Amino acid sequence: MSELIKWFEKRRETKALTMIQQHLAITTSIVEDLEKAVEAAVSDDLETLQNSVGRITNGEKEADSLRRKVMDEVSKGELPPTAREDIMHLVKRVDMVADWSRESTRVLMATPMKHVPASIKKEFVEMARGVKRCAVLLQKCINKIITKPEEALQAADAVEREEEKVDDLHEEARILLGKENLQMAGIAVLVGQLFEAMEMIADACEDACDQVRVIMVRK
Questions:
Q1: What is d(CA 127, CA 198) in angstroms, rounded to the nearest whole number?
Q2: Cβ–Cβ under 8 Å, residues 36 and 52
Q3: What is the spatial distance between Cα 171 and Cα 204, in angstroms, rounded to a whole number?
Q4: Model-level pTM greater than 0.70?
Q5: Is the predicted pLDDT of residue 182 greater than 80, yes or no?
Q6: What topology does CATH give the domain 3-217?
């Protein structure tokens, strides 16, 4: 068992662990709000769209602040250097989920949905739902390290399977984008960027789970 897992088991109520779980919860909420924002954008619900994007913007800032606090807390703690690096890498990778969610909203807000075909709007929603499932599973996976480490690797596998489904959706979206006759090149670029940004959320979830695997197998 790794030194970090032993530390988790002995100190489940420490300030650092509390902040890690808060960071996870905020990140998951951000991705959940992204799904709401995408659904609102394609249905022309501007109020819900603005509210969701506002929460994502504030949540991403809060996640960044918590990431820095976790780094500070871990750096002055009693963890061995390797375990300290492991937890820092994990938090950084989780933070990328929030960062790419915020980037997705930037592209989303710039995309004139009235010029986007219904088939592509449907793909936007499916991608958003897929990345939300990735984020929810990631939260469960990392919490397993703290509560039931023997189940963490299986939870990481679940995240990877969901990320593969998002990859498949992205491939379908590319094919669809090639078939649709979009009115302006700029719209095609924005559509492609939005699909890419959402896929990066799923990739960030997978990267975080890879770090979970490193933590679990390290002796």
A1: 7
A2: yes
A3: 18
A4: yes
A5: no
A6: Methane Monooxygenase Hydroxylase; Chain G, domain 1 (1.20.58)
